[in-house]
Amino acid sequence: MPRNMARKKQMIEEKNAAPEGEEAPRTTEEKEADQDATAQLQEELDVLRSRHLRLAADFENYKKRVRQEQEEAHRYAGALLAERMLPVLDDAQLALEHAPEDGDEGWLKGVRLTFQKLEEALATSGVEPVPALETKFDPKLHEAIGTAESPDHPDDTVVMELRRGYRMHDKVLRPALVKVSRKGQ
């Protein structure tokens, strides 16, 4: 309780105190002063209650925000590592696509298995490829680097994927590099 409130309360109590066994006679002025002091104390109490409620609400909002940030940090903890692994995944894919036909089949099988394990490890962290081919161009998921005339596809359809895109849960780690169809004139 603030000092001025405590002092006012003490003054009221002193005024109201009567010797033992007697009741102090009270004047109208004293009664009005008591009512004014009581009203003032009630007003200060209301202000403090209001401030307390606002602080409690702010603290609850803070706790919710911190909890949400922690959940998000936990959910995307592997995003940086996953982003760094994507070029390795690209290189492995290129190596598989350009493997010599007359090469050792056992070695090629081992490389394919390694590539598959890398994809599975990323998938367990929530990393998945962004669908691209034959889908409608979406600037949130795809990065168009060119167009291609295609009478077989409607405008803004992805007709070629130059680099695979990936996302982790609902966050895009890397957009797919694509070519988009345009009707020939």
Low-confidence stretches: none
Oligomer: single chain
Order of helices and strands: HHHHEEEEEE
Report helical residue fraction. 40-55%
Mind telling me the CATH superfamily name of the largest domain?
A: Head domain of nucleotide exchange factor GrpE
Structure commentary:
With 185 residues, the protein is an alpha+beta fold. The protein folds into 2 domains: 64 residues; 104 residues, Head domain of nucleotide exchange factor GrpE (Nucleotide Exchange Factor Grpe, Chain A, domain 2). The longest helix has 48 residues. The N and C termini lie far apart (83 Å). Strand 4 and strand 5 form a beta hairpin. The model has no long low-confidence stretch (mean pLDDT 87).
Write out key terms for the chains shown.
single chain, 185 residues, alpha+beta, Nucleotide Exchange Factor Grpe, Chain A, domain 2, 2 domains, three-stranded antiparallel sheet, 6 strands
